[in-house]
Design brief:
By secondary structure, the chain is of the alpha/beta class. The protein contains 7 helices and 10 strands. It folds into 2 domains: 165 residues, TIM Barrel, CATH 3.20.20; 46 residues, no CATH class. The longest helix has 18 residues.
Length: 226
């Protein structure tokens, strides 16, 4: 994929693209490292809308974000959905694409939500197969993002620790992570254990807005959700 070339390996701050936020975002592009665009919103876009996205991608790094693939599943991801992602990358010049480590359908039923997958060997192996397949079809591996959830699958369905399941999935598929701070905040409301169950944990410095591991001061606080 010409647009999805090697992505710079450093922590970056990004915003989700929304038409109602366009004026503010465009006025402060010098303060934004990357823009996230929901891919499904543009699968049937007109040529004019695609040209507008390409123009935006020429001004700021862009990541196309999928929300309907259901990669963390024992079910194979659908080829037609991946083809749409690949075409959209070509049409917009986005530098990369991403998806949640979640499942969204089962038994032919769309659940309409990004659900936390069972942390079982079968689920992890299915996610690895889907991620490897997605990388072959699209031409590059996705950045894998955490989800916002307060519901953890019952222990009987999740025998693997969350960190082990997440680490194994990333390593076997060769994917890197993209952490959604609002999702971490939602997952961690009232419980640090639930932050861990989502597979990620992060604390943000109130002064410099950087991860506390590299912030300008020792005082830090969790970034509030949107």
């Amino acid at each position: 994929m010409a647009g999805a070339a090697a992505v710079e390996r450093r922590d970056r701050f990004g915003l989700g693209w929304r038409p109602e936020l366009a004026a503010g975002i465009l006025a402060h592009l010098d303060r934004v490292d990357v823009i996230e665009v929901i891919a499904e919103d543009y699968f049937g876009a007109s040529r004019g809308d695609l040209r507008a996205l390409r123009t935006l991608a020429a001004q700021v790094r862009m990541v196309l974000h999928g929300v309907s693939l259901g990669l963390a599943s024992t079910l194979p991801v659908e080829r037609k959905r991946l083809d749409r992602i690949a075409r959209l990358i070509d049409n917009t010049g986005a530098e990369a694409w991403s998806e949640h480590l979640a499942f969204v359908r089962a038994g032919g039923i769309e659940i309409g939500h990004l659900a936390a997958p069972p942390r079982s060997e079968a689920s992890v192996e299915g996610a690895c197969r889907n991620l490897e397949y997605a990388a072959r079809i699209v031409g590059c591996a996705p950045l894998v993002e955490n989800i916002a959830t307060l519901v953890v699958p019952p222990t009987i369905f999740t025998p693997m620790p969350s960190t082990a399941a997440t680490t194994h999935t990333h390593s076997c598929a060769g994917c890197r992570s993209m952490k959604s701070l609002p999702c971490i905040s939602v997952a961690g409301v009232g419980s640090t254990d639930r932050v861990a169950s989502a597979g990620f944990s992060m604390t943000i410095c109130t002064t410099c807005r950087q991860p506390s591991s590299s912030c300008c001061a020792s005082s830090a606080a969790s970034l509030p959700s949107r």
